[in-house]
Amino acid sequence: MPVRRLDPILIDRIAAGEVVERPASAVKELAENALDAGATRIEIVIEAGGRGLIRVSDNGAGMSAEDLALAVERHATSKLPDGDLLAIATLGFRGEALPSIGSVAHLEIATRCEAAAHGVSIKVDQGLKQDVTPSPQPRGTRVEVRDLFAATPARLKFLKSDRAEARAIADVTQHLAMANPHVRFALAGPDLSGFDYPACTGDDALLRRLTQILGEDFRANAIGIDAAREGFSLSGFAGLPTWHRANASAQYIFVNGRPVRDKLFAGAVRGAYIDYLPQGRHPALVLFLACDPSQVDVNVHPAKAEVRFRDSGLVRGLVVGSLKQALELNRRATPNTAAAALEILARGQAGHYGNGGYARPWPAQNWSPATSPASPGVAEAASVFENFAAPSADARATFHDAGRVEEAAPLGAARAQIHETYIIAQTRDGVVIVDQHAAHERIVYERLKAARAGRDVARQILLVPAIVDLDEASAGRLLDAASLLAEFGLVIESFGPGAIAVREQPSLIKISDMARLIRDLADGLAEDAKASLPLERRIENMLATFACHHSIRAGRRLTPEEMNALLREMERTPGAGQCNHGRPTYVELKLADVERLFGRK
Q: In sequence order, which residues have a C-beta less than 8 Å from that of residue 19 and are 6 or more positions away?
């Protein structure tokens, strides 16, 4: 079969298969063109999930009649003034976007530049271009795409439902809105809940725009990120570790204003949060990386969803280091935890009231007429409290002057311990409830990390080695990891088939049940092997196991001095708002919230 040159319209339709995968791809290209034109208002209207109609209107610079005629020609663009593909400083730099869309749909463009007396328009009907004609168009550009993929009906079979395609268009628009808070974005259509995000200005413009899109929860749980290194700058907001998700869909990454989905960033985010999240959970964050365009190749993916850096190691180090530093400096727990606690309390309180607000009788337990507040023999209300059980920890010692000083501390002064598990502390403007095991677990974990990083893990030789019987497979896994365990101060050796002898243990921790620790480590190594976890993750899991075994257990009664010492240590420990399993270590209730529970406010 002889070689022949393809028809230009067929060439455009082939290109459309790369650039315009679905209606959302067309919206992305058109909205990016509007942003490159300097628009501060972009309005998008769709019908039938974008298949029936896509209309993108902006108030950008517009085009002259000559530019409009060239804009629908193949390989014609204003985005590469010097032809250097390594210095792309715009979003929609591809010249084939408009002609590709016009080759598979009915395309109409109306535009007017500021210097023109009137607007102009052009139509492209499935690849057939018409002449430029005058049009009553205000300053800016309006692009209408009707009957998308009408010229390629096979593509229509691969599209999803109208609602699913509309949702994809909304996602694309929201991504662009995040990266451009100074621009008003509006989206309307019958197949989705439209939105209209006003332009945001000022120092907190980005956070206000992210709040518009992601909700107030994101604002309440966001930590600011601002770092720079060797020509690269990273900014944005990262979610608290206790505010995590089941997948990575709440992670938004932008490179020079371009939304990307890249494995480099996904791995860097996992590495930064490895100490704070349980396995299988993902953080929520929005990050913006800015750099010289020559340092990144944005043309490695047809949809520009992936990028390639000249120095990927530098970028990964910047992302991991910046996130880790922000998380370590953070000392607060997610506000969602407090909100959930208040909701639970409110539901419990409401359950004791019937219709009309009359209180239902409380269950009578150890009730006596002599101690009832309604008894005539009870002269003072204070006598009612004499029959209450004593607190599980005597907190009276904290009510001296030193306790008042401690109330000024972030976690306040310990007042009591309940159920030998939770510490109640009083701050100047509220109450803090601390899970003593989770809090101490984080403290020990950070101590072990610091000691290992400084290669200063002190060991204690056991007077009598601890012998632990295991199955041969578990013993083999432990012996294979013996050199790694020695870095943590745990020295083991074989003691016959299926037995392990523990010769030394880390001095930092006190291990009350060595056999249980060894078995937990063996089980953890087995799970890591099944999941094919990298060495870094295996190390963190081992450290977490050590920390868990040394931590204060639930059920241990603490003295007031021990409780206050734990609170002060939490305030000095990085990431003290959650344990290394991702659970919150404390809940803070403001006095105003507590007063609302009792109807005082």
A: 25, 29, 94, 96, 97, 100, 101, 302, 303
**What type of residue is 584?**
P
Question: Phi and psi at residue 497, in whole multiples of 5°?
Answer: -60, 125
pTM for the full predicted model: 0.70
Structure tokens at 79: 């985005």
Res 19 pLDDT > 70: no
Walk across the sheet containing 422-427 and list its strands. 413-418, 422-427, 430-435, 586-590
For residue 408, CA distances in Å to 47, 355, 358, 443 come to 58, 42, 39, 21
Each residue's pLDDT tens digit, 128-166: 889 999 999 999 999 999 999 877 777 788 889 999 999
274: which 2 tokens? 């490895």
Residues with Cβ within 8 Å of 473's Cβ and at least 6 positions away in sequence, in order, are 526
- Outline where DSSP puts E strands in 59-164: 106-112, 119-125, 128-129, 133-135, 140-146
Residue with tokens 């009649």: 65
The token duo for 126 is 């499935």
Pick the CATH number of 8-197 from 3.40.50.20, 3.40.225.10, 3.30.565.10, 3.30.70.3280: 3.30.565.10
Domain at 215-329: CATH architecture: 2-Layer Sandwich (3.30)
Query: Please, are residues 566 and 558 in contact by the beta-carbon 8 Å criterion?
Result: yes
Q: How many CB atoms lie within 10 A of CB 334?
A: 21
Looking up tokens 């919230």, which residue turns up?
593
Q: Give the span between the Cα atoms of 552 and 559, in whole angstroms.
A: 13
The confidence band for 195, taking pLDDT boundaries of 50, 70 and 90, is very high
- Separation of alpha carbons 561 and 396, rounded Å: 11
Alpha helix (H) ranges present in 425-504? Answer: 436-453, 472-480, 482-487
Residue ranges matching CATH 3.30.230.10 in the chain = 215-329
Phi first, then psi: what are they for 375, rounded to 5°? -70, 135
CATH superfamily of 335-353+389-601: MutL, C-terminal domain, regulatory subdomain (3.30.1370.100)
Which residues are within 8 A (CB) of 326 and not within 5 positions of it... i.e. 6 or more apart? 223, 224, 225, 238
Indicate where the chain has its CATH 3.30.565.10 domain(s): 8-197
Q: Which residues contact 510 (CB under 8 A, 6 or more apart)?
A: 550
Q: Return d(Cα 18, Cα 15) in angstroms, integer.
A: 5
Q: How confident is the model at residue 554 (pLDDT cuts 50, 70, 90)?
A: low
pLDDT, residue 389, reads 38
**Euclidean distance between CA atoms 250 and 254, whole angstroms:** 13
For the segment 247-259, the average pLDDT, to the nearest whole number, is 91
DSSP string, 533-553: --HHHHHHHHHHHHHHHHSPP
- Give the range among 31-45, 287-301, 359-373, 586-600 with minimum mean pLDDT: 359-373
Contact 489, 471 (CB under 8 A): no
Q: How far is the C-alpha of 526 from the C-alpha of 520, rounded, in Å? A: 10
Q: pLDDT tens digits, residue range 435-493?
A: 888 888 888 888 877 877 777 778 888 888 889 998 888 888 889 888 888 887 889 99
